[in-house]
Write a structure and sequence with these properties.
Elements: H1 11-26, E1 35-37, E2 47-55, E3 58-63, E4 73-75, H2 83-98, H3 100-103, E5 106-113, E6 119-125, H4 131-144, E7 147-152, E8 155-159, E9 163-170, E10 173-180, H5 189-203, E11 209-213, H6 221-225, E12 231-234, H7 238-250, E13 256-259, H8 263-270, E14 289-294, H9 303-309, E15 314-319, H10 322-332, E16 336-344, E17 354-361
């Protein structure tokens, strides 16, 4: 993980630069003025990863500038990370310094926290984990009130849970999420909550069905399912699928069918190119899709998936890479126009940003 250039005094200027960049990317498509959702200036990041770097007899939390893996930058506190992470950092360091069972050949530490206060720590080792490690980790988990996952080559030991539990509020309703260790989750919880609210409002209340591609752990699925008759959602990661199924059950959302398929595979299924056993009990023709929701990886949608979305009157698109978002919109611009767009500043003090657009049929 590279180090963000943290300087709250520059926040307004960097957000203005991002807003202008999004305007320029979407200008060829006559986009309206973007709605801008800012971030807390500090303590906004719910996860953090550190390498441990030895200097003398001590090891320190370390990060590196992009492209330089040899010049560590040491941290005692990390102001962009959640207050929970900052509270845990010195206590964990004291623990590995005091306990050979915990500290021996420990080379990386990962923190995963939530707005609701849950926390999980992953400890990565260049050695096998043994009974002494497990006993020390159980004691530490109890003292810190966290879950701990130990990782070494070919082994993963879990003390407590292998996920954290988050609570996010959308339109007055509280949704609860299991967020697994090692799986993707939105790093900026405050901005994620704003993204969910924007998507919920942009979709509107509908009496038809929603197709969702790249649904992950159901982050958007849960609130959007309350706006439509039923949802067919797809995700390829088995870990994320299992988390999404648990989240649907935990929140009593019963109008979603979730299928472990990639977006490309679902495109083939809908185009009747080939059948899939995972769709054997789903009648695709029974759905009345009026909208599609996509939140693809940085590469954006491939050409065929992008062409699939053209079938729908409404395309609700969340993007972590506005350049590939613009490329996808260019493919769809002859049939769909941008009626709403938004900037979500998930990553302050970096050039990265999330964007959202609602594309509607002309």
């Amino acid at each position: 993980m590279s180090r963000p250039q943290f300087d709250p005094s520059t926040y307004a200027a960097q957000l203005a630069e991002k807003t202008q960049r999004l305007r320029e990317l979407l200008a060829p498509f006559a986009a309206p003025e973007p709605e801008v959702f800012d971030s807390p200036r500090e303590h906004y990041r719910l996860r953090a990863e550190f390498r441990l770097w030895r200097e003398g007899e001590d090891r320190h939390y370390a990060m590196f500038e992009a492209g330089d893996k040899h010049t560590p930058i040491f941290f005692e506190q990390f102001p962009i990370a959640s207050r929970r992470i900052n509270e845990l950092m010195p206590r964990l360091k004291a623990a590995w310094q005091a306990s050979p069972a915990l500290g021996f050949k420990l080379f990386q530490v990962e923190f995963l926290t939530t707005l609701s206060g849950d926390a999980l720590i992953t400890l990565c080792y260049h050695r096998p984990l043994d009974a002494a490690w497990q006993a020390a980790a159980e004691q530490l988990a109890s003292e810190l009130q966290v879950s701990i996952v130990g990782r070494s080559r070919g082994k993963r030991l879990v003390i407590g849970k292998d996920y954290v539990e988050e609570e996010l509020q959308v339109a007055g309703r509280l949704f609860r999420y299991r967020q697994p260790e090692g799986a993707f989750t939105q790093p900026n919880g405050a901005v994620c909550q704003k993204m969910l609210g924007w998507a919920y409002e942009a979709l509107g209340q509908r009496d038809d069905d929603l197709l969702e591609l790249y649904c992950g752990n159901g982050n958007f699925t849960l609130p959007l399912a309350t706006r439509v008759r039923q949802v067919l959602a797809t995700e390829i990661s088995k870990t994320s699928v299992n988390a999404a199924l648990a989240n649907l059950a935990d929140n009593g959302v019963d109008n979603v069918r979730l299928v472990r398929l990639s977006a490309e595979e679902l495109t083939e299924a809908l185009n009747e190119v080939r059948p899939f056993r995972r769709l054997a009990d789903i009648d695709l023709k029974s759905y009345q899709f009026g909208s599609v929701f996509v939140d693809p990886p940085r590469a954006g949608m491939d050409v065929d998936t992008c062409e699939l979305t053209r079938r729908f009157d409404n395309i609700l698109y969340i993007s972590c890479n506005p350049e590939t978002l613009a490329a996808n919109i260019a493919q769809l611009h002859d049939s769909h126009r941008i009626s709403r767009c938004a900037l979500f500043d998930q990553f302050p003090y970096t050039h990265h940003m999330e964007a959202g657009v609602l594309l509607q049929r002309r």
